[in-house]
Amino acid sequence: MKILEQKVVPFGHLHTHTEYSLKDSALRVNEAVDKALELGMNFLAITEHGNMHSVYKFYNACMDTGKQLVDMVGEELEIDKEELKKIKNLMPRNKNMKFSLRDVEELKPYQAKYPKLFQEVLEREVKPIIGVEAYTIPTKEMVESTDKAVNSRRDHLVILAKDETGYKQLIKAVSESYLFQHKTTQSVFPRMTYDLMEKHFKGGHVIALSSCIQGEIPRHLLEGDYEGAKEKARFFENIFGKGNFFIELQNHGLEDELEVLPQLIQLSNDTDIPLVATNDVHYSDKEKARVRDMLVALRFHTSIYTTGFERDCEELYMKSYEEMMELFKSTPEAISNTVKIANMCEIEFIREKRFPHFKTPPHISEAEYLVQLSEKGIYERFPNFDTMKKKYQDMIRDRMKRELKTINNLGYAGYLLIVQDFIREGKEKGLVGPGRGSAAGSLVCYLIGITDVNPLKHDLIFERFLNEDRVSDPDIDTDFDHNRDDVIEYVKGKYGESSVCSIVTFGTFAARASVRNAGRATGKSQSLCDRIAKMIPDKPGITLEQALKENPKLKEEYEEKRDVESLLDDAALLEGLVSHTGIHAAGIIIADQDISNYIPLIYDQKERLWVAQFDMNQCEADAGLLKMDFLGLKNLSIIG
Hints:
Layout: H1 29-38, E1 43-49, H2 55-76, H3 81-90, H4 97-103, H5 108-113, H6 115-124, E2 127-137, H7 148-151, E3 155-161, H8 164-177, E4 182-183, E5 188-189, E6 191-193, H9 194-200, E7 206-209, H10 216-222, H11 226-240, E8 245-249, H12 255-271, E9 275-277, H13 289-299, H14 321-327, H15 332-344, H16 366-381, H17 390-409, H18 413-429, H19 443-447, E10 477-480, H20 484-495, E11 500-508, H21 511-521, H22 526-534, H23 544-550, H24 552-560, H25 562-574, E12 578-590, E13 601-604, E14 609-612, H26 616-622, E15 626-632, H27 636-639
Parallel strand pairs: 1-2, 2-6, 7-8, 8-9, 10-15, 11-14
Antiparallel strand pairs: 2-3, 3-7, 4-5, 11-12, 12-15, 13-14
């Protein structure tokens, strides 16, 4: 269907899980946004289980629908491709058409020239709604209970940010919920207490939905406690504010859902709390239910064919407006209320540098102090500077001044001061590497002690490290010996414990791993899985598709043996999905204040570390945070 043949519908999904709801959802982030576009939905919410890992990826994908639509609509309107390219080039990174028109005056003439194009793009681009499906418990004391039924309790509650204040409240609450986590061999369940919610969700900046059948209100109804459900509904309405709490209806044909549906509608009538209809989205299309089955089987270390394994109901897909209207035809207001909620939500992420301020001597700016250290460094690195020939003196000073101009123009003086400071501390406590990567091309870095490589002697280029056209922040990797942890503690002491954290990493199902995991989830023999996995060329980043092209024997097995065909087809469904999280071996974030004011954090109980919920690229490029690599190199003393 052509994009202009698809009407914009008065409905959008507000309860959506992607692959970042680990081993529970088979929905890729871009796939979710593309499906919303396809279905004519111009808003979509992200609500992962207890975490916010996907927020920036989802937000950016939604922002990119503006550019996607310029191409799609432009082609159908037969607008010249070069004109479309010019329009897209004027749209800033991670801004949709709405924000671009506000910020870029040069787009206005194109809007006047192609009014139909701009009208369609503005109507259809997907608005991102940021949220979480939180786990909740009444009190923190339940965490320490010796009664397993009490200490493992976790009810569900969907929370959506209405604005930037609501987003900040949400990331604070999500971060703090990890202090009350319940951990099993399969998953970690961060939990928000009532006190936590009352503390953070003030002023009506978030919206809450009563959630799925595992929400607290449906649980009371299933227990035959209608009055308890009514009391809880009033309680949540009091926390979030009148008009900001909705009773959520879901209908996947499950027995428990069908039992509570009429009671939820009655509850809405009795309390005057509005209804909202959602689908508990875990995959894009009905036929993708098998992928979720495999993921869940892997989470529980079983097979989808094991006796007792509960297969997916095949209804957790991104249903169309028409399908949702059919399911909830007796309560059409529950459908239209999704639009009402979407209109209440508007978030824009604006990237700003959140680097810590380096404390300089009184009345001296960071830029001025960097100049002073560089001048001092000339005589430390070149002790005979005054007796050098003038042409060498000029070469050193001219290069230094040129670099300092670029560094200060781009606002990175403080960054270099921070690095030189902790490297100096590292050298006092042990060995520090001489520097690696593009930073070795900077004379200023050499002069202030960040590197020990003279770029003039080795003819190294500064512009590889930093130049006016560079979009990303400079990156300085530093090698430490046994003193790495001491230096990190020094940094925490200097900038504040809450201003420093580690960084999450995301593992995905690579080609070989997808084969082995698909086989494990479907009960295939380990010998078959190992044999087929080893036929995939051992090359970084290789895909199953490439492997079939590069290895004729693998292709032959795929075409001639049914068990191999089914194994590889299942593996292709898993390939590339997020499989697990880890902690970056070297990366550290340093901010100018409590990091949870900017991004959500995880508390890793085993490592006793606070960890950013976004990967290093998102922390830098999207959140504007300073990322440093503190590399532990055990054999540095041998090299030294």
